[in-house]
Amino acid sequence: YTKVVELGCGLGFNTIYLARLFPQVQFLAMDITEANIALARKQAKDLANVRFECFDYNTHEHTYQADVIFGVETFCYAANFGTLINNLSKALVPGGRLVIFDGYETQPDLVNHLNHDAQIAYRLVCRGFALERFQSLSEVHQAFQSNHLLLEHDSDHTAGILPNYKVFQQGCLRLLSYPRITRLLLKLGLLPAAAFRQLPSGLFGPYFFEQGHLSYRQFIVSKA
Q1: pLDDT computed for residue 195 by the predictor
Q2: Alpha carbon of 163 to those of 14, 59, 70, 168, 183: distances in Å?
Q3: pTM, to two decimals
Q4: Nearest Cα to 219, choosing from 135, 137, 99, 107?
Q5: CA dihedral sign of residues 158, 203, 131, 115
Q6: Which residues of the chain register pLDDT less than 70?
């Protein structure tokens, strides 16, 4: 493989790390936020095998061709997951692979299987992550099958993310325990508003992963 694409690259940490490990591979990393791309370009100015572009994978045409396309916690923001997978399949060369890391509902229509309080908590978790909902595992498998992508690897990494997630949870609890200090931090700009909006996800998210309602997965699929 010589051409690798990362979608939703953020500040480019993943691609920059990989580009230094594999100087013979050409990397294209894309993100919807122009400020992220500008900072990523500065961090990668010494790398000849990396290109960063501003790109909205929901609306822009996927005209690139890649041996590998990967996304880390980004495809959950797809306007239509099936449409996105269809576009990614077309952008893969024969024999190419798609690699995904993300969180998913373990059963379809999860919210309707929860009691009233848990439904509120789940909606707050989704809102904190700027999501309407998490995609379900069945939805993901159906998208792969519909686009004739072979599922080669499906692994559950929930146990691996929970320790860090619980550290995040403890930090959220501390912020809420001292509301005056938290308000001051917000006013001074020391606590970004975007980070503050993630508090519900930090508070309630671990519960849904521990109870098996959500799972953090890695998928690898290949194109025939």
Answers
A1: 84
A2: 21, 36, 24, 9, 27
A3: 0.91
A4: 99
A5: positive
A6: none
